[in-house]
Amino acid sequence: MLSLFGAGIGRGIAIGKAYVLRNSDIEIPQFQIESNEVRGEIERLNNAIKATQQSYQELVRNLPKSAPKESAAFIEAHTLMLRDPVLVNETKKIIRAERINAEHALQTQANNLIQVFDAMEDAYLRAKQEDVQHVTNRVLRKLLGIVSHNLDQFNHEDLKGRVIIAKDLSPAETLFIKDRKVASFVTDLGSQISHTAVAARSLKLPAVVGLHGSTKYIQEDDLLIVDGMRGIIIVNPDALVLKEFKALQNRIRKREKQLFNLTRKTSKTLDGERIHLMANVETAQELKEVKRVNAGGIGLYRTEYLFMNRAQAPSEQEQFKAYKRMVTAIDKPVVIRTLDIGGDKQLTFGYPDKLSSESPLGLRAVRLCLNHVDLFKPQLRAILRASAFGKVSLMIPMVSNMDEVNQVVSLIKQTKSELKQEGIAFDSRIKIGAMIEVPAAAIMADLFAKKFDFLSIGTNDLIQYTLAIDRVDDAVNYLYDPIHPAVLQMIRQTIGACRRAGIPVSLCGEMAGNVRYTRLLLGLGLRHFSMDATYILDVKEHILGTDTQKLNYWVGKISRAETPSAARDYLTQLNKS
Ligand code: PEP
Ligand code: MG
Question: By alpha-carbon position, which residue is closest to atom 3 of ligand 1?
Fold first, then answer.
């Protein structure tokens, strides 16, 4: 028995036999060519690129219906790389200058690019090197006539219930293995923010990435336990461990079934307070879970996922279709948040350099949108158009001052009047809200509450900005504290401001879906929660067992705690009470 550790993706545990893919291990021949062979070699490269482009097109055509909408965009980004002169022309130059074979020249240039990406500080750009190798491998396989290692050629039975072990997997391959009902996957490379991880998460596939040496330590048919929550792989577990994990898996399944009984139950506390539970979504793929748990609607639709991993911004029409699909599929209120790009969420298409700073304090979210109205306006039009098809609200992320707010409001007004003039339908009374995630906005919540129809507290960022800790920096992760009294004071203050202004307020950060904080948030006066749909029933269960009249004592103690450990102790007492 052997335990390996990497970065976990998704919730849940998978148990299955290993299916080791060796498709990344391509032997690359290296030989000199004569000057009269240069043309032929370049021709061979061109043909291989053309064939690879065709295979990508085929991949898009055969995408399963269940594949997320972004899948085609992932593949499109790879296709574009095949036309990139930095990869193609430079490879040809190497063939000419060094008189070497196409395979070797291509890998040499790919290595050059990989080195450039590898040196980048930004984790997202660094992850781009994986894309370069994926595309290069595909062309190399065509050059070398290797046809047997594409996942799309495997039949369903081969992969069903298996744990795929690979040096790396592309997002497209991830979609294919999901469609073939694999249990999980483990890769040597990749990070939790890679495209593959994004795809896996939205497909609800537990996995572990960045487990260096997986292909070295895991053999075909080894029995594996993959714990996606903790990032642990157990290879050939002994009988006792296997029994324990199977029992754990059963407990998770049983609990899910039990919780399912709560779907039709009204979300109400013991003392009769109605609590609204909405879902956070990134893609339409998640709608199934939203419906399964009978969420009260979508409290946060993170539209930026529609803009990522692609060569161009989605057009107004494409956005309209995506938003309309979300709105009509659910037939419940949907809060569409405008583009929140910047910081750790970067665009990949060719916008002006430094469009979005990687600093969380930089040109992010509404700041970026107001600086690039050409990006913002089509989105506003698309959201307004979608509002004709259901109960849509529009939400602005990261507002920090009133000038910003006024600019957004007047832009929305202007967009509405343009649509009216063009005779295009929209909900003229669409509710406009803002996220409270900058401390300045929380402190001035009374002012913001007067200006908007609703507010939503984004604790992920509010905590990062209040406590001055970068939410993606491992080194200061231990300081990320949702129950820091300063944070709680801002939440309380925002809720109070909304009560005074007579508008609803929700909380849509990760905190909303963590049952440890359910009672605390209820005690602070929160009545609208929005979270990943998979947590809704857990939270509902806690709500059903809580009497809001009995929370004051411990919530007061936590809010005044002098140290984090004291706050944690009081929280434990609150949850036991
Ligand atoms: C938040 O900051 O709490 C939030 C919900 O927004 P995001 O996680 O998308 O930044
Ligand atoms: Mg945020």
Answer: 458
